């Protein structure tokens, strides 16, 4: 086993057979934290964004916070009800992309795919950046290094997902459930204290909020509506991640659609309960929260806030107040909140690779995205997502407020096209369905999707109007870029498929085969290549030697004559000491002289067993093959010669295949007799 194999096994674990794919499917108790962690974690920043937007006009507008929360909850319930129809109608895992492609056409499907790809990358960037901010608030030494912390967190998260969906899901399940317990427990205890009349004020309750420039006077009706629309659009960040379940249906255990629909319902009920509880408690505890880049809005009774004032997130302030006599409760809430924000990105790490594999199978993405890795995960998609997310975190310095402006545009584009596609889906099936019960069910589903389209369309318009200049234009450009790239990839694969299609001309035999054997020395690899080339019985067979040193050339000619080889040796003189160019030019001359013939170039190569030995051999052969591959009518044949080190590597691989590993007997891969036989072997 090579060093690379050992490293991969330590990092990722033992390889899994393709037949073991069923062992990686998820029960509902694991699927909920795997696919819902993103939507649940939005409780940690969506309320913050609502209060930040309302604070633009001062604290008096906080009275609208719970109403905005209710509006977001209504939209979330509508979207979840709509996606419950989708997972039943399209359980293959294509989600919004499949719905749009089947019902609205390829362009609509590519639009949805580009929107989701951007949204998944932003999901990781926003979640990890928010977690970095929480970590810096808890550990002062990390202040100013949030981007570095975020990049490291993404790398660790990617490594966990490369181990497989089931392993990462089991690892993430406990923190996700702890987060639910922490937030719901904190809110329940806080509401109990509210009813009892002893709920304390938040640490920021004594501060005043000065409206931003241009918002100082009384709000007009239009100004108030615009402000509420901005707050509502920011609060809709809570809806991100809902679509991941529709893309992850194949990862559920059977019955897949029913389990996915149940998980969706649980996600909606838990997320809405948590979000509304946090908003209500924040309002009752008189929290004052503004944009971290506009702390000058905050005022104390004596003037501006002190230099270096640290504004804690909303959940942190609520936990500090609710558990004012129980510090462990505060630290528990803050700790699991920071952890869940890291793990929230896991939703994207499950959705993005699956979507990438579907796009690859449809010819809209590189084929490598459709390949499963050693642990049956789509490893290339995971690595690509991690790289893009790291870049965003580093460029935006892990500032959540900046990244949040790029958020949710893509997901609401996919929401709208998905709902429109589902309406067409039910309409098409209603034309042919005659069973009254089935028709009633279809009409009910179409009504749900129609209402969902109306709601999500309104939200999309609001988001575009309120967030376009704040950064949403970057998201739209990114979506356009992915759209153009996928269309270009699709056209490329279509051209290649047409070009490779077999026809009658492919049966025509070449008029002649001119075989060339490259000879650098007269040794065993050259003699083996000559023997193999002769066995193919070409029309012409000759050896080629490029002369760069007259003494070496004369020595080779003498050895050739001494062995009485009946194959002619042609010497190509190279005054500029080039080796590759003379051979390429010679093959091109032969090809021009016989356009219907074939030139077969046999290249002797050494097979070595150590990676560093490869650096010492075969370099000229690699360059030559790279040039000849672009020459029409030229076939390149490698003739391997195994050195002793290759035999040692082969022996190591054979021993590794027959070795019994820990757990093989329990998994049924070997019998007890095999295990005993290996123990007895010296």
UniProtKB/TrEMBL annotation:
Membrane topology, from the record: Multi-pass membrane protein
Gene3D superfamilies for the chain: Amino acid/polyamine transporter I (1.20.1740.10)
Keyword annotations from UniProtKB, A to Z: Membrane, Transmembrane, Transmembrane helix
Keyword Zinc: no
Chain ranges passing through the membrane: 63-83, 104-128, 134-158, 170-192, 222-242, 263-282, 330-355, 376-396, 402-426, 447-465, 471-490
InterPro entries per UniProt: AA/rel_permease1, APC_K+_Transporter
Superkingdom field: Bacteria
Compartments (UniProt record): Membrane
Iron found in the keyword field: no
Protein name in UniProt: APC family permease
Species for this entry: Nocardioides flavus (ex Wang et al. 2016)
Taxonomic lineage: Bacteria, Bacillati, Actinomycetota, Actinomycetes, Propionibacteriales
């Amino acid at each position: 086993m090579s060093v690379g194999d050992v490293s991969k096994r330590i990092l990722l674990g033992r390889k899994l057979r393709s037949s073991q794919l069923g062992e990686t499917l998820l029960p509902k108790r694991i699927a909920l934290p795997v696919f819902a962690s993103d939507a649940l974690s939005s409780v940690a920043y969506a309320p913050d964004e609502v209060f930040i937007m309302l604070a633009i006009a001062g604290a008096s507008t906080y009275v609208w916070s719970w109403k905005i929360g209710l509006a977001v909850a209504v939209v979330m319930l509508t979207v979840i009800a709509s996606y419950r129809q989708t997972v039943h109608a399209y359980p293959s895992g294509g989600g919004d992309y499949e719905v749009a492609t089947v019902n609205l056409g390829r362009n609509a499907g590519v639009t949805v795919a580009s929107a989701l790809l951007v949204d998944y990358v932003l999901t990781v960037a926003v979640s990890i950046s928010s977690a970095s901010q929480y970590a810096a608030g808890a550990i002062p030494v990390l202040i100013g290094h949030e981007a570095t912390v975020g990049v490291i967190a993404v790398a660790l998260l990617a490594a966990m997902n490369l181990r497989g969906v089931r392993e990462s899901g089991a690892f993430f399940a406990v923190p996700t459930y702890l987060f639910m317990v922490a937030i719901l427990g904190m809110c329940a205890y806080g509401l109990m204290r509210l009813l009892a009349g002893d709920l304390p004020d938040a640490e920021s309750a004594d501060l005043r909020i000065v409206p931003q420039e241009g918002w100082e006077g009384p709000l007009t009706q239009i100004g108030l509506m615009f402000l509420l629309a901005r707050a509502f659009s920011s609060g809709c960040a809570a809806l991100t991640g809902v679509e991941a379940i529709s893309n992850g249906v194949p990862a559920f255990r059977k019955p897949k659609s029913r389990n996915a629909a149940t998980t969706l319902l649980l996600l909606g009920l838990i997320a809405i309960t948590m979000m509304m509880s946090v908003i209500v408690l924040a309002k009752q505890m008189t929290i004052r929260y503004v944009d971290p880049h506009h702390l000058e809005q905050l005022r104390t009774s004596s003037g501006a806030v002190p230099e270096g004032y640290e504004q804690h997130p909303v959940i942190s302030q609520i936990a500090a107040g609710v558990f004012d006599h129980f510090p462990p409760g505060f630290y528990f809430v803050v700790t699991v909140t920071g952890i869940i924000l890291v793990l929230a990105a896991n939703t994207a790490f499950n959705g993005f690779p699956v979507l990438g594999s579907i796009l690859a199978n449809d010819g809209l993405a590189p084929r490598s995205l459709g390949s499963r890795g050693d642990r049956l995960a789509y490893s290339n998609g995971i690595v690509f997502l991690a790289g893009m997310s790291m870049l965003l975190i580093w460029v935006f310095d892990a500032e959540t407020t900046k990244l949040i402006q790029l958020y949710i545009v893509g997901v609401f584009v996919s929401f709208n096209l998905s709902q429109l596609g589902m309406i067409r889906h039910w309409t098409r099936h209603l034309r042919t369905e005659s069973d009254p019960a089935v028709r009633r069910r279809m009409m009910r589903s179409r009504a749900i999707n129609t209402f969902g389209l109306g709601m999500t369309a309104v939200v999309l318009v609001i988001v575009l109007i309120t967030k376009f200049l704040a950064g949403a234009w970057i998201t739209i450009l990114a979506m356009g870029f992915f759209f153009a790239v996928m269309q270009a990839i699709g056209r490329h694969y279509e051209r290649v498929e047409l070009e490779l299609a077999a026809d009658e001309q492919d049966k025509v035999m070449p008029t002649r085969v001119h075989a060339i054997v490259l000879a650098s020395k007269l040794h065993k690899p050259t003699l083996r290549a000559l023997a193999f080339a002769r066995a193919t019985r070409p029309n012409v067979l000759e050896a080629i030697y490029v002369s760069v040193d007259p003494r070496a050339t004369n020595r080779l000619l003498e050895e050739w004559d001494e062995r009485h080889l009946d194959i002619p040796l042609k010497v190509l003189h190279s005054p500029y000491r080039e080796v590759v160019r003379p051979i390429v030019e010679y093959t091109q001359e032969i090809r021009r002289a016989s356009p219907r013939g074939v030139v077969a170039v046999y290249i002797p190569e050494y097979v070595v067993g150590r990676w560093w030995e490869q650096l010492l051999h075969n370099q000229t052969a690699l360059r030559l093959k790279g040039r000849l591959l672009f020459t029409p009518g030229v076939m390149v044949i490698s003739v391997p010669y195994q050195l002793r080190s290759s035999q040692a590597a082969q022996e190591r691989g054979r021993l590794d295949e027959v070795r019994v590993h820990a757990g093989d007997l329990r998994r049924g891969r070997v019998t007890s007799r095999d295990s005993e036989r290996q123990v007895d072997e010296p």
